[in-house]
Amino acid sequence: MGATTNEGLEIAKKSREIVREKIKDFINNFNEKEVEIVERVVHATADVEFAKLLVFKNNPIYEGVKAISEKKPIVVDINMVKAGVRYDKVICPIDFKESYVLAKREGITRGKASMRVAKKYIDDGIVVIGNSPTALLEVIRMVKDNEVKPRLVIGVPVGFVKAEESKKELLKLDIPLITCLGPKGGTPVAVAIINGLIAKARGGVV
């Protein structure tokens, strides 16, 4: 799970064994590739409940790995997510000047504005939302309005305001997606999921 030294690899191996034991009662809910992602999320968060909360729809692992193999862009909601993703084409439009201008002009959040600004990258690309429900809701709107057709949406915003609601709306879409139920989520979850897909695309273990 990112380790490279012998000591690190041994720790990672032990961690994986511990995680697999802790989630053994839930693995029948997932296919083999999904279990690998679930393990990664539980390892990153030390929260076994994610084995009950994660949802995979429309073959998202296959679609995500294929898009990454084709070097499609990954659009993220905040710089913390960007910092954790091990991939060259990661775009975080939250700090783009256009996002500031649009947010101020329209009276909307920068998260929402940033997804509009990144529309050309979202279309046929991957979206990873770990924190901003308004960013996810904007992506959902753009999909519904046929403005974009992302290859995969990973939507796991965290919090008690709009996060759970945004994920429920995401689940209504007929696109490849990965999300989690309830208010839990956040940067570690988003990064764990997308890095798992990147590792798989490079031929490594998830």
Write the layout of secondary structure elements.
Layout: H1 6-22, H2 32-45, H3 50-53, E1 54-57, H4 60-69, E2 74-76, H5 79-84, E3 90-91, H6 97-106, H7 110-117, H8 119-122, E4 126-129, H9 133-144, E5 152-155, H10 163-171, E6 177-180, H11 187-201
Parallel strand pairs: 2-3, 2-4, 4-5, 5-6
Antiparallel strand pairs: 1-6
Helix pairs in contact: 1-2, 2-11, 4-11, 6-7, 7-9, 9-10
| Unreliable stretches covering 5 or more consecutive residues | none
Summarize the biggest pleated sheet. 6 strands, mixed
Would you tell me the overall average pLDDT?
Answer: 94
Number of strands: 6
**In CATH, what is the homologous superfamily?**
Cobalamin biosynthesis CobH/CbiC, precorrin-8X methylmutase
Q: Write down the CATH topology.
A: Rossmann fold
CATH architecture: 3-Layer(aba) Sandwich
What is the count of helical runs? Answer: 11
Q: H/E order of the elements?
A: HHHEHEHEHHHEHEHEH
The assigned structural class equals: alpha/beta
Q: What this model shows, in words?
A:
With 206 residues, this protein is an alpha/beta fold. The protein has a single domain, classed as Cobalamin biosynthesis CobH/CbiC, precorrin-8X methylmutase (Rossmann fold, 3-Layer(aba) Sandwich). The protein has eleven helices and six strands. Helix 6 packs across helix 7. The protein starts with 5 loop residues before the first helix and ends in a 5-residue tail after the last helix.
Give a short synopsis of this structure.
About 55% of the residues lie in helices and about 10% in strands.
